[in-house]
Write a structure and sequence with these properties.
76% of the residues lie in helices and 0% in strands. It has 338 residues and is mainly alpha-helical. Helix 8 packs antiparallel against helix 16 and helix 11 packs antiparallel against helix 12. It is globular, with a radius of gyration of 22 Å. The model has no long low-confidence stretch (mean pLDDT 88).
Length: 338
């Protein structure tokens, strides 16, 4: 439908609906992976799931390279190509089964509902299942505190990403223009390198999370992210160097998002796992959207892309480094909470 949008407001509305679908998909898939995989390799499996974001971005960029010569309607064809991954749903519906730990909770909930409707005695545990998952999870003080700390970390990652990734292509294009080269092409290449480098970044985070632990790996990625931002915007002076540092930034700044599908499912019970992680992740996306709207104002206030990206990026990652150790317990190799 987006490909057929007749004007800007239709386009905006359809993108909003698409974003709602993306938010629903991420939480469900993350909970599903967490509940299906063995404890010892759950981090690597979730990292593979998250790496799909980087792979998809690279394929989209390559598709645009092929479609751009078509002309003014090239973007419409790009959205049509974007419908193809939806065919994977046919496979998921037919071949992927719901995890046993989730079906067990679902069956208990159904029995509790039947008992309540029949006027039979319902235990306290069953009454908990009959509440909405959101209320049941966040009515517990320790889970509520955990959710708020996770929200801080996730908001930091989202804002840090927008503070860096949104401006890397523009800054690279600016450097290219200063050397007499084509800015738009260099900017597009920087975006492609940034997203492409995230794929091994995701995968390494999953490996290290299973090997070292969740928190030490998160701390590593946030620390390198805090260091690479000022390097990119202050120490890089040629478009060639910008591409190299953009690869490092993509590896860590975008790669850090793999901790979310790894760590978050391990901190909430099965009865409300998907609800809790979706609430945290999508609330952070709203914060990121607000930052995107204020990007132009921020550049004006801080005197340009260089200062704005550095200040926002470094401040965000320092907050993350200070928060990691307090967000929840270390969960490497441990079973998911029931």
């Amino acid at each position: 439908m987006t490909a057929l949008a007749p004007d800007y407001w239709w386009l905006l509305t359809l993108r909003f609906i698409t974003g709602m679908g993306l938010g629903a998909e991420w939480g469900s898939a993350t909970a599903l992976i967490g509940e299906l995989w063995p404890d010892r390799s759950r981090g690597r499996a979730a990292a593979v799931l998250q790496s799909g974001f980087g792979v998809g971005a690279v394929f989209a960029a390559l598709a645009w390279y092929l479609l751009e010569p078509v002309g003014d309607n090239a973007w419409r064809y790009l959205f049509l190509i974007g419908t193809l991954p939806a065919l994977i749903v046919l496979y998921v519906r037919r071949a992927v089964r719901d995890p046993e730990m989730w079906t067990s909770v679902r069956d208990r909930r159904r029995k509790a509902k039947a008992a309540q409707e029949a006027g039979d005695t319902v235990t306290a545990a069953d009454r908990e299942l009959l509440r909405s998952p959101f209320t049941a999870v966040f009515s517990h003080a320790h889970l509520r505190r955990r959710g708020l700390r996770l929200l801080v970390l996730t908001v930091v990652s989202v804002i840090g990403l927008y503070a860096v990734s949104a401006w890397i292509p523009a800054y690279t294009a600016q450097l290219a223009k200063d050397t007499g080269e084509t800015g738009t092409r260099w900017g597009a290449n920087a975006g492609l390198v940034f997203n492409g480098a995230s794929v091994p970044g995701y995968l390494l985070l999953g490996y290290l999370a299973d090997r070292w632990g969740r928190k030490p790996t998160m701390l590593l990625y946030y620390s390198v992210s805090a260091a690479v931002v000022p390097v990119f915007f202050f120490a890089v002076h040629t478009p060639q160097a910008a591409l190299a540092v953009a690869a490092v930034a993509g590896f860590f700044v975008l790669g850090q998002f793999a901790w979310m599908p790894i760590y978050m499912p391990e901190l909430f019970p099965t009865s409300g796992r998907a609800t809790a992680i979706s609430a945290v992740f999508n609330s952070a996306r709203i914060a990121g959207a607000l930052v995107t709207l204020g990007t132009g104002m921020l550049i004006s206030l801080l005197g340009g892309i260089t200062a704005a990206a550095t200040v926002v990026g470094v401040v965000m990652y320092v907050i993350a480094i200070a928060t990691v150790w307090f967000v929840g317990p270390e969960t490497k190799g441990q079973p998911l909470p029931q």
